[in-house]
Amino acid sequence: MTSLNLQHASLWQTRAHIRGRWLDGDNGFFDVTDPAGGGLVARVAELSPAQVRSAVDAAAEAQPAWAALSADARADFLQAWYAKVKEHREDLARLMTLEQGKPLGEARAEIDYAASYIRWYAEEARRIVGELISLPQNDRAGLVSYTPVGVVAAITPWNFPSAMITRKVAPALAAGCSVVLKPAAETPLSALALMALAEECGIAPGVINVVTGTDAPAIGEVLTGDPRVRKLSFTGSTRVGKALMRACTDTMKRTSMELGGNAPLIVLDDADLDLAVAGTLASKFRNAGQTCICANRLLVHEAVYERFLDKLVAAVSGMTPGSGFDEQTTLGPLIHRRALESVQAKVQDALAQGARLLTGGQAIEGQGCFFQPTVLADVNVSMQVFREEIFGPVAPVTRFACDREAVALANDTPFGLAAYVFGKDTGRLWQISQSLAYGMVGVNETAISSAQIPFGGVKESGHGREGARQGLMDYLDTRYTCLGNLIGQGA
Ligand code: NAP
Fold first, then answer.
1. What pTM did the predictor assign?
2. Alpha-carbon distance values, 186 to 32, 249, 302, 469 (Å)
């Protein structure tokens, strides 16, 4: 088993956490493997459905007392948790690289990003403010206040093992909700380490519970079927998101769905090509292409098409695949063999339909799940790399002739998470950015995310927002109280 020699040994947790206790699984344990080397990393508790139900019991019992705390008290807890995460940044980053594979530099950046949501919602917890409405009758007043939705189930993916957790759990706690968190089976260690730090800050038992296991449908069934769970916040694939949303209808739960993307990146003929290539590299190849807002399709004006390709190929050829623990590495592995096979199949499909392979194109032989950084030119709309989320280090490039065609190509997808456009003419950039059917648009920028912004999509990329004030409102119900007969006896 791989050993990490953590500075803070209590961050190494392999048991689930329910009602303030670390628990073995009724169904034994499951293996977590290292995607870079293929070795066993840890054995983690495999919970039974009854144990998941007991986590809901714990959350339901803990929630009223947590909600009854002052906003200041909840904020103080979040601030303490933030400080712990920052203090143990290096250990948390190393755990993430071990189980997820991303280069250590990216893992450190994700810990900072994850922590930023805790700090942001520590601040926002104090700013849950209602309003007073003037009613038509002058002896009445309408009061609008916000109440926590209650118990929240949070289900998160493996590609951002820490940040996808804090941007759900921090606003939920700020609002006065309790949480049952189910992290991805590939990356439970990061979730359990965050839980250990929350416990050190004195969070009351049952306010955050972490359930682990590989039978995701069974865990999902408990969480979606239980009427005490009042909200499901899910980040993951559109396919699973749709199934979970359907399962939430019987108990009419609120849902937030952060789902898949198929981001276009448009390069106009007046774009700064070096800037566009740098933006492409940062977006397309971060986390080996396994992010929901990855530039998935590069749409390039015909006047700069070949020049852009030359620059892109030169930049991509300079990338260094390898273990995330090697500081030289700029491209980590894919998460597992299935992912590797899926990326390979999409590249084969493009080549069979006439795409031009400019660099890469193959899995890298040996241990681990590495794929060569790849550029495909002359990609058309019928190819899988155009139609589907690739989730790998493959940059497919398509040519366009005018702005209208670029927008039509960009919007030719059921997804609508993030889009990017590079160019110089402000009016043209404005027109294009406003025509893109996406929840987020980056203009001359691909690093668009932070705790301050409402992250989320439209169409089949989901609904709800994470970050910003909107991310807190998603955990609050609106209550209207009518104060009547406001007529004094005196005067
Ligand atoms: P996934 O297969 O949908 O899994 C995501 C989470 O859902 C995991 O915890 C998984 O558990 C769980 N799950 C799977 N089937 C379930 C079921 N029937 N009931 C309950 N839970 C279930 O997605 P993924 O492949 O891990 O993640 C990649 C996807 O996430 C991509 O499409 C990406 O675009 C999307 N994503 C979106 C955002 C965003 O903000 N919009 C951010 C990051 C990622 P197991 O691990 O145990 O299977």
1. 0.97
2. 6, 28, 42, 31
